[in-house]
Amino acid sequence: MPATAPNTDPFQLATDLSGLLLIDGALVPATSGKTFEVINPATGGAIGQAADGDAEDVGRAVAAARAAFPAWAAMPARERGKLVQECGRVLAGHVEELGRLIALETGKALRTESRVEASVLADVFVFYGGLGSELKGETVPFNPQMMTLTQREPLGVVGAIIPWNVPLLLMALKIAPALVAGNTVVVKSAEEAPLTVLRVCQLMNTVLPKGVFNMLSGDGPGCGAPLVEHPDVAKITFTGSVETGRIVYTSAATRLIPVTLELGGKSPMIVCADADLERAVNGAIAGMRFTRQGQSCTAASRIFVHDSIHDAFLAALKARVDGMVMGDPLDERTDIGAIISPAQHEKVSGYIKLGEEEGGTAHVCSALPTDPDLARGLWVRPVLFTDLTNQARVAREEIFGPVTCLIRWTEFDDVIAQANDSEYGLAATIWTRDLKMALAATQRLQAGLVQVNQNLVVQPNLSYGGVKTSGLGKEASLEAMLEHFTHKKTIILNMG
Ligand code: NAI
Ligand code: MG
What we know:
Layout (H helix, E strand, L loop, with lengths): L9 H7 L4 E3 L2 E3 L6 E5 L6 E6 L3 H20 L2 H16 L2 H12 L3 H20 L9 E5 L2 E9 L2 E5 L5 H14 L3 E5 L6 H10 L8 E4 L3 H10 L3 E7 L2 H14 L3 E4 L4 E5 L5 H12 L11 E7 L3 H13 L19 H16 L3 E4 L18 E4 L6 H4 L6 E7 L2 H9 L3 E2 L1 E5 L3 H10 L4 E4 L14 E2 L2 E2 L4 H9 E9 L2
Parallel strand pairs: 7-8, 7-10, 8-9, 10-11, 12-13, 12-18, 13-16, 15-16, 18-19
Antiparallel strand pairs: 1-2, 3-4, 5-6, 6-22, 11-21, 14-15, 17-20
The structure holds 1,4-dihydronicotinamide adenine dinucleotide and magnesium ion.
């Protein structure tokens, strides 16, 4: 079958992609020949193998990207942009295929999450592909005899390390601006979700010159660390945990290369007494990301509800979550799929137990799937905690599961202080009809993204990134391309 023909049988596709890396335009096994299993979280069964890349494979991929760099960087920016837009068009023809494969390997439901992610993916390439001619410099009024100007230049080989929760979108937000700016790229996928991103790389390599976009799989210390340490990598862009972000940043610091980090969150949602209750409940459903099993760095995981409407809000929210169907991610009826891995399942279950030990009341929602084929799947019934304070560990630490704390409040100043009392600062929302309160919240909340009466997800054209331990630098938007994937060269021509 030609690589570009859509294949909507995810089991077959997983087999076809097994044991391979993509280096210099070709699908190849790891040098060591080693592989590791890729598991379907909904059944616990293996769906294929991923190549277990190591430092030697990193060396091959970086060498290919380095060799491809001069020609790619020298191509007129609009031409590069057109190729990146062409990648978007190819990917748009594979939405169903990519959606089904990502559902199979990550356990995210096809209808509510996986198909949505696959379709947004193409849009990111089309958006950035259009920005080629925005790589503009400035002229500087320095001296009449001297023509003084700045120009944007690519950095070189960009290393991108991505997580498993939204691998397609989070990868696209890194590689689309990196490529349009004239960099070449080596991506290291997450252990839990290596196959769909490999398929994306394969499809894009039917459009891009060889070596421009390479894909590695392997574990963090064995494959991710050597990528960060490689002397020919000029920049690292990373999304994942705070703990690993610190390791990556430390390692990049010893080589003095720039780093973009998109890390965790514990995002507050503030519901005021005058809020439109139905709208706020809809916002909580979107914000809590229970359709993604809560596996989102932006998840609204602390909901501060005004005391006067707390019980009504809880009842309405619980009814909605109870109505969500847990089950086979590939089934169109399913709202909530499975947790990515046994390690995450254990972590999330541990936090639910901890919340009860801390004095919280766990309102356990929805129902486990009954299909015997799913008996060994990694299921967690969604939990709404009440009767906890913002000091509880479950209200302070990132759980990355379908668990949200509802916390009562009465005084506006106090709720803003509680919302800000967190090591994180990724996103925040406030729900009110009172303009004064809304404006005050936008000014006082410490977060990279503050929304009033809505809970939109990341958009390609809006700057995105956190403050405090949520990260460093911004992704998405023109700004991300200019500030994080180019450097500004100053040029002076003395014609005196
Ligand atoms: P992680 O941060 O360890 O993994 C993310 C990526 O980093 C993966 O590709 C991994 O292979 C790579 N990596 C791991 N160690 C590395 C090293 N020493 N050098 C270079 N690369 C390395 O995250 P993990 O273990 O999958 O999840 C743990 C927790 O992290 C989650 O429970 C959640 O709280 C948080 N997380 C946050 C994400 C976000 O979107 N901000 C995404 C995934 C996880
Ligand atoms: Mg880890």
